[in-house]
Design goal:
Elements (H helix, E strand, L loop, with lengths): L2 H17 L12 H8 L3 H13 L3 E4 L3 E4 L5 H7 L3 E6 L6 H15 L3 E6 L4 H12 L5 E4 L11 H10 L3 E4 L10 E4 L1 H14 L5 E6 L3 H16 L9 E4 L4 H4 L2 H8 L4 E4 L2 H13 L9 E6 L2 H6 L2 E4 L2 H16 L7 E3 L3 E2 L17
Parallel strand pairs: 3-4, 3-5, 5-6, 6-7, 7-13, 8-9, 8-10, 10-11, 11-12
Antiparallel strand pairs: 1-2, 12-14
Helix pairs in contact: 1-3, 2-3, 5-14, 8-9
Amino acid sequence: MDTQHKYMEIVSWTIEQIKAGLFLPGARFLTEAQLTDRFSCSRQTVRRALEVLEQQGQVTRVQGSGTFIAEDDSPLASQRQRSMTVGMIFTYMDTYIFPSIVRGAGDALVKEGYSMQLLWTDNTVTGESAALRMMMEKKLDGLIVEPTRSALPCANIELYHMLAERGTPVIFIDSYYPELSIPHVALDDIQAGWMATTHLIEKGHRRIACILPHTNRQGHLRYLGHVKALREHALAIKEEDILWYSKENMDQLLSAGQLLDVLSPYSALLCYNDTIALQVMETLTKNGIHVPDQISIIGIDDSQAARYTHLTSIAHPASKLGEAAARLLMSMIDGKEGKSVLFAPHLVQRSTVSDHKEYNGYEPQ
């Protein structure tokens, strides 16, 4: 196919996509690089196609920002062309984080006239695939997604590429897939891990264990923060101090015999979140191990359960995360560039961390 036919192929394809509603007015169009890859052609051919599309009034090119699908000058016309609906996909619907995130996002979206469509994945690749496909069948202005098993390579990367090709703005929340150039809104998990470990060290603890998930990026980042704190205090980094878990082996890890044996050399424990911390505390208490006299424990999230049980924890700004994600997504729907947002953690001190005494852990039962 010669160059003239090639650039007209791009023009025709683009017009068909716009007519089918796959690129909404005002949405960001594919980049030159994406079009080059899709049509296996040169940048020159792509630029010629974009020139024609701009001349026909199909797209608008903004220097330094990219190419956008053309829209009417009338704000009311632009509003009618939008669905005023945003999709949200989460791993679980019943965790203590989820309601606060949705509340924060919902308040921000409703104020601007948007409604929400909610789906969940059960933290499985197939669940995420099904949720993304269902969302793609709806007329949505944008999508907020909590990634599934984000420490693993993204198995649904082609679906995210399809969303990008359609011009659908996407925001990741709470975590992200590093292989995708999609902005995310999250807690600064490295800082959270550093802050928790630093607090334990400042309390005199030197033998500190961690329980972290190996499939979630948050766990990996909190591990980096933990390591950073150890290095700053010239403490040894030992593989055996980290208990990596998955949802499949969590029950086995929390079995009384194994847990007591593993934790017996340590005076302090950093848990991935409050749920794990409270499960560990329950197991230890049932077996006569007293927190914090025999082992100090710190969680992350500052959940309502943490407040009831006096658990020392690093606060997770769930509601603010939801609000920030919604506002970022709405700005991207308006054609603005999306930039990632990290929230600084803060420590909430309660009674499950004490000053380290002369003991070094406890004797296993």
